[in-house]
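fyi for ur records
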Amino acid sequence: MHEHRDATDAEARALASGVRLRILRATLDEPLTNREIAEALDLNPATCLHHVRTLVDTGFLEALEVRRGRRGAREIPYRATGKSWYTRSPVGASSMLEAFLAEIALVPEDERGAMTRLGLRLPEEQMEEFRDRLHALIMEFHDRPRDPDAQPWSFFLSLHPDTSQRRTGR
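which gave:
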């Protein structure tokens, strides 16, 4: 089991891009070439390669053995290493939100699954319990073996101070 750790400056910069986070998601279960990543994310291949190289240089993506692609061209498939899951980045929140919004926009409304929004007012010790239990549940499912035949799902969670009461002066 890996321990969570703080990102280096280079790692934090790499994770500060919603596009890079989407590349990591796209290559999580299946290695993809730069061309395949660019097509999947609707990116220019040169722009995509810049992001891919940044992720490889920081260890978030790994280059696999060269293969022959269409018309016999040499292609390098890339696969996410999973390192980003264990790397805490101070600049990652906005890039995670950017990646989430780009991904959810592609999912039809009737396929989005459960969405919920909840306001809480708990004493600090109960908030800490809430955070710990959420983290334990997420890690339990994260650590289960991935079933290559199962439908892939994405999960986004944000716990933050509620600002709605601040506007009303309460």
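The domain at 5-109+116-168 is CATH 1.10.10.10 (Arc Repressor Mutant, subunit A). thats all i got for now
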